[in-house]
Inverse folding.
């Protein structure tokens, strides 16, 4: 090691050290920053502005995950009995949204939970204001989950956490 240090002058070593530090510093910051978001409005609607700002700073990977989950975390499909008759049928879908509540003159956000029918969900998906994050479906960490949406003739395919993480990493 000493011979290696003696062969190079100090300015070359400093340059090498600086390049190494910059390389590792920039590569780390790429993983710890929020990438360009496609669904910022839906994320703010889901989390609230305060939580969104907090997570953007403290946990940007979570923001990136939610962004991808919002737009690429599911696919709506037509029901095909021969292929899908083993899938679980759901008759109630849980919806949650942040609502402004005023109590004793103070305004704050509260998460309001409600139940909707599969028919209402299918109509909601077609709306330009649809926010997938506001609906609660079971999903798996490593395999695709399917839910038959009542008698609507529709099935929702929900991608697993591992797939969403791969999509997030592909964006970085």
């Amino acid at each position: 090691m000493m011979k290696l240090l003696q062969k190079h002058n100090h300015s070359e070593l400093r340059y090498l050290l600086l390049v190494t530090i910059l390389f590792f510093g920039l590569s780390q910051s790429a993983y710890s920053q929020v990438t360009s978001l496609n669904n910022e409005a839906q994320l703010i609607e889901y989390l609230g502005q305060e939580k969104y700002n907090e997570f953007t700073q403290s946990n940007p990977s979570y923001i990136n995950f939610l962004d991808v989950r919002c737009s690429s975390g599911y696919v709506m499909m037509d029901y095909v009995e021969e292929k899908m008759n083993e899938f679980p049928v759901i008759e109630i879908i849980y919806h949650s949204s942040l609502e402004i509540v005023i109590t004793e003159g103070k305004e704050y956000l509260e998460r309001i939970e409600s139940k909707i029918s599969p028919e209402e969900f299918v109509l909601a998906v077609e709306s330009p204001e649809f926010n997938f994050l506001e609906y609660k479906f079971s999903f798996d960490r490593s395999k695709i989950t399917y839910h038959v949406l009542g008698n609507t003739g529709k099935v929702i395919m929900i991608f697993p956490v591992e797939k969403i993480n791969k999509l997030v990493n592909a964006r970085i």
